[in-house]
């Protein structure tokens, strides 16, 4: 198995909606394209859904005559006011940038093992089925194994974090 290409199949995304008569229907059934946080990265990220506001608009195909796939038009890691649903295939030996988003994130290790490392060096080993509730902390994801790992994330808007008179901001630093 190549360590330079994910062994996992591309992520299929099925989106449901409503007909003009109010009946359930499938409005999208696609394989999502991969993207990468840096040009050097071999760990693909799949953006599965994106909403620009909360509460989310879930009837646009009825009110506007067609569904607008917001995931195609954003470049931010997080929407700022809505939510994101994302998948990450993490290559063996790879590490994400050290980062903080001002979001409440739900993460699930779907395949493999991953280490969550916080900014002061605290490390938590995670295995398949483990979950993380990430509450705006600086962190990195490390795959310290020889096998690929797959994680799923749901990110939602959160209020800013205020500590000792300072407001914490979104931050991204290169992996070490």
From TrEMBL:
<dbReference type="Pfam" id="PF07883">
    <property type="entry name" value="Cupin_2"/>
</dbReference>
<dbReference type="InterPro" id="IPR013096">
    <property type="entry name" value="Cupin_2"/>
</dbReference>
<dbReference type="InterPro" id="IPR047142">
    <property type="entry name" value="OryJ/VirC-like"/>
</dbReference>
<dbReference type="InterPro" id="IPR011051">
    <property type="entry name" value="RmlC_Cupin_sf"/>
</dbReference>
<dbReference type="InterPro" id="IPR014710">
    <property type="entry name" value="RmlC-like_jellyroll"/>
</dbReference>
<protein>
    <submittedName>
        <fullName>Cupin-2 domain-containing protein</fullName>
    </submittedName>
</protein>
<feature type="domain" description="Cupin type-2">
    <location>
        <begin position="89"/>
        <end position="154"/>
    </location>
</feature>
């Amino acid at each position: 198995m190549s360590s330079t290409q994910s062994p996992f199949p591309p992520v299929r995304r099925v989106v449901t909606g409503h007909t003009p008569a109010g009946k359930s229907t499938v409005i999208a059934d696609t394989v999502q394209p991969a993207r990468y946080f840096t040009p050097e990265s071999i760990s693909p990220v799949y953006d599965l859904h994106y909403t620009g506001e909360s509460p989310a608009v879930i009837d646009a195909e009825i009110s506007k005559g067609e569904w607008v796939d917001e995931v195609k038009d954003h470049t931010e890691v997080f929407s700022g006011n809505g939510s994101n649903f994302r998948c990450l295939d993490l290559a063996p030996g790879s590490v994400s940038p050290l980062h903080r988003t001002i979001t409440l994130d739900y993460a699930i290790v779907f395949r493999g093992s991953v280490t969550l490392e916080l900014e002061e060096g605290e490390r938590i080993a995670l295995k398949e089925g483990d979950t993380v509730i990430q509450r705006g902390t600086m962190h990195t994801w490390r795959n310290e194994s020889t096998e690929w790992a797959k994680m799923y994330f749901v990110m939602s808007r959160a209020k800013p974090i205020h500590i000792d008179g300072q407001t914490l901001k979104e931050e991204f630093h290169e992996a070490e």
